[in-house]
Amino acid sequence: RTGGAFINNGYMDIQGDNLMDTNSLESYFENNGMLVKSGGSSVTYCLTPFHNHGTIDVQVGDLVLGYAPYGGFPVTNTGSIHGAAGTGISLAGIVTSSGSIEGDRVNFGGGLMSGSFSANQTSVGGSTFTGTVLKFGSLTVGDLDLTNATLAPGVTNLSSLNISGTFITDEDMTVAGPFTWTSGSLRGFAG
Description:
The chain is an all-beta fold and about 190 residues long.
């Protein structure tokens, strides 16, 4: 093996704006316990393959998991990720999430979200949602397919919508604020 792993089975407290990175898919971070970001008002970067099977609690600042360039590092979530009001969570790699994600600002790069999802501000790259969506809030879409998602009541009421790719849904979407469509397509499907 050409890389090392860091495995948290206990309680890890990130108390500042820090950086963890690698140049190898063999190196990774695995959280099986509790990972808390309690300090630092800016961004903590975990630019490695990242596997969460436990709980992540972002209390302040922003947390970036994974890395998108050069094909992307995998980010898996079978646990829960929570961000308090005013915080940001960015899943920047090739994402597979069957766990729950709930936050104020959530950036979901590309991949499959089959677990539950809720955010006040959502930015989505090339993603497919098949789980339960509780809230998008303000939605920015690169590419988003909601064909097999379960949308909770009120999810289709967006505070704003910005589309620059393909947005697929058979639901009626209501936009209360700005609606910007710079490129791409809006597609319905026979549901």
